[in-house]
Amino acid sequence: MKTLFTPYTLADMELKNRVVMAPMTRTRTLNDVADEVVALYYSQRATAGLLISEGLPVSEEGRGYLYTPGLYNDEHVKGWRLVTDAVHAKGGRIFAQLWHVGRMSHTSLQMGNIAPVSSGTIPATNTTVFAWTESGEPGPVAPSVPRMLDTHEVKRITDDFVKSAQLAMDAGFDGVEIMAANGFIFDQFLSSELNSRTDEYGGSVENRQRFLLETIDAVSSQIGSNKVAVRLSPFGRIYDLAPYEGEEETWSKIGEALSLRRLAYVHLYFQPTYATAPSVAEKFRADFRKSFGGTIIAAGGFDRDVAEERLNNNEIDLVAFGVPFIANPDLVERMKHGWPLAESDRATYYGVSGSPEKGYTDYPVYQEQ
Ligand SMILES: Cc1cc2nc3c(=O)[nH]c(=O)nc-3n(C[C@H](O)[C@H](O)[C@H](O)COP(=O)(O)O)c2cc1C
Fold it and tell me: Which of 49, 188, 218, 308 has the lowest tally of Cβ within 10 angstroms?
C-alpha cells in the first residue's frame, strides 16, 4: 500500500514524502521582490516533499496582477534566495513556477501603458485581473484587449523563460515549473479559438503547440531537462477559456510530445470545470499515464483518502494540495495523524493592505488538546 508519507525520488532528488504544495499566488510583495515574510511562509510549509512557488512573472510584460514577486532581475534573485535558503534549511525542496499571463493583463501594468500580448486579439471577458483602476487605486479591472505578438516576439518570450530559469538556478531553486495551465499565454496559443495566427505558431496543432514545446526545450538546454517541469490544465475553462475545435487532438498530441521528453515531472491540474467533460478528461488522464514514463503530479480538490486511492491505482505519483496548505502550515502532520484541518479565510488569500502576515504566516500548527 502506498501512502502520502513515504519518500519519493524525483529526478535524482529525494523527497521526504509525496505531498506537494501547489503553486499559489498570494500577492504579498509591494515592490514585487520576495522578502523575509515570504521566506517564513514557505519555510513554515517545508515539511511537504516538494513546494512549488507562486507564479513568478518572467518579465514586466508577463505580469497580470499587482504585487506578484517576479523573477527577471538581480533584486528578484536576492529575494528568492532568502526563500530557497529557508526551505532548504528545513530539508525541503522548491521549484519556481515561471509565468507569463499573455492577455490576462491590463494596460496599467504594461510598460508605456501599451496593450498586453497574446496569440490573437480576443480579450478575456467575464473575469478580472488585479491592476490600477481608473481612479489610480489598486483593484480588479477587466483584462485589456490584447495585441497579437509578432513572430520574433514569440521567440523573445521563449528567451525570457530561459533567462528566468537561469535566475531560478542562481536563486537556489531545485527546478522550474513552466506555467502552461489556467488560460495563460501557452493555453492562448494552444486554443484554436483564440489563436488566429498565420505564422509558424498558428493553424495546425503542431504549430499551436510549437511555442510551448520550443520553450520547454530551450529551458531544458539551459538548465537540464531533469530540472524542468510543466503544469497543464487540459480541457480547463477558467479565465474565459472556451471549448475549441480540435481540443481533444490538441491535448493528445501534447501528451505524445511530452512523452518524448525527460522532464522532472508533468503537473496536471484537474479543475472543477472538468465536470462538464469528465469522460474526455478521464481518457486523457489514462492515455497520458500510459505514454508518459515520468513523474505525474495531480492537483485539484484532493484530500488524503482520494490522494492515496489515486496513488494506489497507480494513476499518479505525487499529489499537490493548494487551499489546504493556506491555513495548515503543518498539513503533512495533520493528514498523517488524522488531526482536523483549519479553514482558511478567503478574504486574506490575496493582498498587501494591512499587515502582510495576516492570513499568511499567522496560521498556527495543530496543538493536541
Ligand atoms: C489563492 C490561490 C492562488 C493560486 N495561484 C496559482 C498560481 O499562481 N499558479 C497556479 O498554477 N495555480 C494557482 N492556483 C491553483 C492551485 O495551484 C491549485 O491547483 C488549486 O487551488 C486546486 O487545488 P486545491 O483544491 O488543493 O486547492 C491558486 C489557487 C489559490 C487558491
Answer: 218
**CA gap 299, 7 in Å, rounded:** 19
- Could you tell me the distance, in angstroms and rounded to a whole number, from the CA of residue 197 to the centre of ligand 1? 30
For residue range 182-196, list pLDDT tens digits in order: 999 999 999 999 999
Q: What atom of ligand 1 comes closest to residue 350's alpha carbon? A: 1
Say if ligand 1 is within 6 A of residue 304 CB. Answer: no
CATH number at residue 118: 3.20.20.70
The reported pTM is 0.97
Taking the centre of ligand 1 as the mean of its atom positions, its distance from the CA of residue 82, in whole angstroms, is 23
Asked if the structure places residue 368 within a domain, the reply is no
Ligand 1 atom 31 nearest Cα: 323
Q: Is 322 in the pocket of ligand 1 (CB under 6 A)?
A: yes
Report helix, strand or coil for 26: coil
Torsion-angle region of 28 (φ positive above 0: left; ψ -120 to 50: alpha; else: beta): alpha
Would you say residue 195 lies in a domain? yes
